[in-house]
Amino acid sequence: EPESKLHDEL
Amino acid sequence: MNIFRLAGDMTHLLSIVVLLLKIRTTKSCAGISLKTQELYVIVFITRYLDLFTRYVSFYNTAMKLVFIGTSVAIVWYMRLHKVVKQTYSRDEDTFKHYLLIPPCFILALLIPLEFTVTEILWSFSIYLEAVAILPQLLLLQRSSNIDNLTGSYVFLLGAYRALYIVNWVYRFFTETHKIRWIPWISGLVQTALYADFFYYYIKSWKNHEKLRLPA
User: Fold this and answer.
1) Which of B2, B100, B118, B136 is the most exposed place for a label (fewest CB within 10 A)?
2) For this UniProt entry, which segments traverse the membrane (chain B) (predicted)?
3) Cα-Cα-Cα-Cα dihedral of B143, B147, B152, B155, to 10°?
4) Minimum Cα–Cα distance from B125: chain A residue
């Protein structure tokens, strides 16, 4: 899962 | 979602509620920097471009809408509301905030998370948020007396990113084990900019005296 998909934060 | 991130988001939301409360109840935005508020509108819009393309959770979508909506509402109040706009400290809010945008954009082009438009804008938003408070801190230094709601607003705003840093440490050790340079370094810079404000705010709170920042 590339880092950018980690945008689960606000 | 961990408790630190939830606390961070709630603190951020509370800071916006306090600011809206101040503007609506006192019908005044004295001591509030319009330039910082305008930068926040840019920060939220460039960060939440995936609002309609990627669904993370109801909470995530709802909070993004609240942050965009309230930040636009605050700029509307300060620019257009017939009573509130008269109370804007135009002469003291002189930080040239537009000068912050090119360096953040160039940095986002040099060090983006990924070379895609959305990720470059996301990185831009992270860098811009780190410095967006500067006009507000300058205005506080020029304000002779800082009212409690304004002081609380800035304190909560600084505290939210400090809680996010704790959240990042927690997630590093429990979840991702990955270093996220862009948000971490920007978040540290952002929180560090509040350092002297935190010092004077806590001192004034302990000594029960009016908050004053040295010029």
Assistant:
1) B2
2) 55-77, 98-115, 121-140, 152-170, 182-202
3) 20
4) A10
A5 to chain B, minimum CA–CA distance in Å? 10
Domain that holds residue B114: 3-207
User: B215 lies in a domain?
Assistant: no
Q: How many domains does chain B have?
A: 1
Average pLDDT, chain B: 96
**Could A7 and B176 be called an inter-chain contact, meaning their C-beta atoms sit closer than 8 Å?**
no
Helix (H, G, I), strand (E, B) or coil at B75: helix
The model's pLDDT over B18-46, given as tens digits with 9 standing for 90+, comes to 999 999 999 999 999 999 999 999 999 99
Kindly state whether residue B30 falls inside one of the protein's structural domains.
yes
Q: Are B37 and B78 in contact (CB under 8 A)?
A: yes
| ipTM here | 0.85
Structural domain contains residue B94: yes
In a domain, B86, yes or no: yes
